[in-house]
Amino acid sequence: MSSSADPADAVLIARVLAGDDRQAFAALVRRHQSPVRNLLRRLTAGQHALADDLAQETFLQAWRKLGQFRADAQFSTWLHRIATNAYLQYLRARRIELSLDEIPAIAADAVDDEVPDADLQLDMARAFAVLSPAERAALLQCYHLDMSHEEAAAALRCPIGTLKSHIARGKQKLKACLQAWELAP
């Protein structure tokens, strides 16, 4: 493993690979489950049960494929790639694509707690739900998970140019949906 992986993660990964250490893997799950679930909740536009199911699938895949982790990126980046792929596979299996004409109503408890204004939270959640899955995933990787474009492109397995296009289109859509807030005092 290279030095890119978090040393604590690297030790746990080595223990799992060396002896099928389920306690070490459980420690990795505890450490990373909240960020993975948060990513999936945002990707699924606040569908908690679906996000939790996809998180479980993410960690099952991680367990099965841990030997393929090359540590050329952070373990969390690798997990986010698996989670994003699980979400995209879910969409492909059901042929789901949100259009601009379909803005789902999202429960107030499904939005981010960091923003103090409930109206803004709800509008942000609705605006985010308008984005295509690829736009939503690109914005989440770069802005919520604070990944560089290179890291996000690697996590989403797309060229950097494509990632930047998804980000630009997503930001345009968000700006259009939230323009009333721009005028607010």
UniProtKB/TrEMBL annotation:
Q: Which NCBIfam families would you find in this protein's record?
A: sigma70-ECF
Protein origin, superkingdom: Bacteria
Kindly state which keywords UniProt assigns to this record, in alphabetical order: DNA-binding, Sigma factor, Transcription, Transcription regulation
According to the UniProt entry, where is the signal peptide? none
Keyword Transcription regulation in annotation: yes
Name of the molecule in the record: RNA polymerase sigma factor
Q: Tell me where in this chain the RNA polymerase sigma-70 region domain is found.
A: 28-95
Spell out the coiled coil positions from the record.
none
What species is this protein from?
Answer: Solimonas terrae
> A single Gene Ontology molecular function, please?
sigma factor activity
Q: Which GO terms describe its biological process?
A: DNA-templated transcription initiation
Stored PROSITE patterns: SIGMA70_ECF
